[in-house]
Automatic annotation (TrEMBL):
<dbReference type="InterPro" id="IPR050723">
    <property type="entry name" value="CFA/CMAS"/>
</dbReference>
<keyword id="KW-0808">Transferase</keyword>
<keyword id="KW-0443">Lipid metabolism</keyword>
<keyword id="KW-0489">Methyltransferase</keyword>
<dbReference type="Pfam" id="PF25371">
    <property type="entry name" value="DUF7884"/>
</dbReference>
<comment type="similarity">
    <text>Belongs to the CFA/CMAS family.</text>
</comment>
<dbReference type="InterPro" id="IPR003333">
    <property type="entry name" value="CMAS"/>
</dbReference>
<feature type="domain" description="DUF7884">
    <location>
        <begin position="26"/>
        <end position="97"/>
    </location>
</feature>
<keyword id="KW-0949">S-adenosyl-L-methionine</keyword>
<protein>
    <submittedName>
        <fullName>Cyclopropane-fatty-acyl-phospholipid synthase</fullName>
    </submittedName>
</protein>
<dbReference type="Pfam" id="PF02353">
    <property type="entry name" value="CMAS"/>
</dbReference>
<dbReference type="InterPro" id="IPR029063">
    <property type="entry name" value="SAM-dependent_MTases_sf"/>
</dbReference>
<dbReference type="InterPro" id="IPR057206">
    <property type="entry name" value="DUF7884"/>
</dbReference>
Length: 410
């Protein structure tokens, strides 16, 4: 009897909520309740949300991308429909109601501690799901970062190879030079540096799965004499390098540690060397961590624990304060939106196989995460930049030509 009363109370609240949503215009949405009730928000809905129990109603009282994402991930609701449409509906629900939601959340907590053990745990949580899991929806080289669509019509495999070459060309990598790749993933960039550019390449990662596969690939390519991967923290790297790259890694550093991160890079870079930092940024000038209607909170809880995104201005400031001259900045935001479209399509196409590798919760996490990130990059909620730098000081410390044309060889 108590359950019936709670259910009825929830339904009354839900009816009022439905009226609020409808007052703001049509949505391509249909909601089905456990008791057979059916609510349509347009004549031809493309997205159906099913609430299997009265408890699920609570997630809709003050909807945000965090609460709606939690409801889906925890199995409290089921969702059917094309992923782009699903996220469009979620954004509309989170943004149109007077529920205290804001596009940007609270100011990011700069006091977060990023110890070696915590960073290692966070990285392993995300990347050590399984190599086979990532292999199903990434490109052939398993490059888990923004691709580079030079013409715009490339397939994912070609665009990822172009991204590797674009980075290595920007840093003017030469045969025999020493390259350090901070956060090397499964080794695609260091392998490219060794096999095509003839460099002596070292990659580092905190992921045991990435480390094992990268080592295997290096052996299979027969370049052990000039290519290696280490399982270590960037703070523990020693030596001096001609060129340094960091792709999709500084998002894990933490806002409070950006200065130390770039200072470490500075200490490892020789005079006349080049560094390229390829990383995701927030478009909130206050470095908001709860960005896009609570989407940042969802990612922090389920996808990238302890990740923090700086605004471009903060990244440039900290890079400059560490003694590195920023000599080139390139936005790849549209490229990442396209990359995520490919990843989402491949994830959906391999859904049945993926569900045999991971439990339902992890399947749902990655499904909504990929679709959400595609939306975020497409709508300029987040961005991504390549920052090219050298040691600051005399003219001779900058080895690049006077023109940027060297970056785009014919």
């Amino acid at each position: 009897m108590l359950i019936d009363k709670l259910g009825q109370f929830g339904i009354d609240q839900f009816d009022r909520w439905v009226g609020q949503v409808r007052a703001h215009g049509e949505l391509p949405l249909q909601i089905r309740l456990w008791n057979g009730r059916d609510y349509r928000f347009s004549a031809a809905p493309t997205v159906t949300i099913t609430l299997p129990s009265p408890h699920a109603v609570s997630y809709f009282r003050r909807p945000s991308l965090a609460s709606l994402g939690e409801a889906y991930v925890e199995g409290q609701v089921d969702i059917d429909g094309p992923l782009p449409s699903v996220f469009e509906v979620a954004v509309a629900l989170a943004g149109r109601l007077v529920s205290g939601n804001k596009l940007w959340g609270r100011l990011a907590a700069r006091g977060r501690q990023h110890s070696r053990s915590l960073d290692s745990e966070s990285v392993q949580y995300h990347y050590d799901v399984s190599n086979d899991f990532y292999r199903l929806w990434l490109d052939e080289q398993m490059v888990y970062s923004c691709a580079y669509f030079e013409r715009g019509d490339e397939g994912l495999d070609a665009a990822q190879v172009k991204k590797l070459d674009h980075i290595l060309t920007k840093v003017m990598l030469r045969p025999g030079e020493r390259l350090l790749d901070i956060g090397c993933g499964w080794g695609a960039l260091v392998l490219r540096a060794a096999t095509k550019f003839g460099a002596h390449a070292t990659g580092i990662t905190l992921s045991e799965n990435q480390y094992a596969l990268a080592q295997q690939r290096i052996r299979e390519a027969g370049v052990q004499d000039r290519c290696k991967v280490l399982l270590c923290d960037y703070r523990d790297v020693t030596g001096t390098y001609d060129k340094i790259t960091s792709v999709g890694m500084f998002e894990h550093v933490g806002l409070a540690n950006l200065g130390g991160y770039f200072a470490k890079v500075h200490s490892l870079l020789r005079d006349g060397g080049l560094v390229l930092n390829h990383g995701i940024t927030t478009t909130d000038v206050d470095n908001g961590s709860g960005a896009f209607f609570g989407g940042g909170d969802f990612i922090d809880r389920y996808v990238f624990p302890n990740g923090e995104l700086p605004h471009l201005a903060l990244a440039v400031r900290e890079m400059s304060a560490a003694g590195l001259e920023v000599i080139d900045i390139e936005s790849l935001r549209r490229h990442y939106a396209r990359t995520l479209e490919f990843w989402t399509e491949r994830f959906e196409a391999n859904a049945d196989r993926i569900r045999t590798m991971v439990d339902d919760k992890h399947y749902r996490i990655w499904r909504v995460y990929l679709a959400g990130c595609a939306w975020a990059f497409a709508n300029d909620w987040v961005s991504i930049y390549q920052l090219l730098g050298c040691r600051a000081g005399a003219i001779g410390l900058n080895p690049t030509p006077m023109s940027r044309s060297y970056m785009y060889p014919k």
